[in-house]
Amino acid sequence: MLAIGIADWFDLRLWVGYAIVCILLLVSAGILALIARRAFKKGSPPMPEMAIEEAKKTRAAIEEARH
Q1: Separation of alpha carbons 37 and 24, rounded Å
Q2: Distance CA 46, CA 7 (A)
Q3: pLDDT tens across 12-53, in order?
Q4: For residues 3 and 21, is the Cβ–Cβ distance under 8 A?
Q5: Distance CA 12, CA 61 (A)
Q6: How far apart are CA 33 and CA 44, in angstroms?
Q7: pTM summary value
Q8: Are 7 and 19 a contacting pair, CB within 8 Å?
Q9: What angle do CA 29, 32, 12 make, to 5 degrees?
Q10: Is the dihedral of CA 6, 12, 13, 16 positive or negative?
């Protein structure tokens, strides 16, 4: 509908309207990809701090149960 509207509004051929919409979609996808790339670079790898803490507690409990 957007392509038909653009073609009708600017008195262009229909395929030009589709080309304009295609270019707009590609540009917006590129911008979103750059934003996503920046977000992924800012993110840090997950650290299993909670799992390490629980493993230490489990080990302490097992050693205490042995004695």
Answers
A1: 20
A2: 49
A3: 999 999 999 999 999 999 999 999 999 988 877 777 888 888
A4: yes
A5: 77
A6: 19
A7: 0.62
A8: no
A9: 35
A10: negative
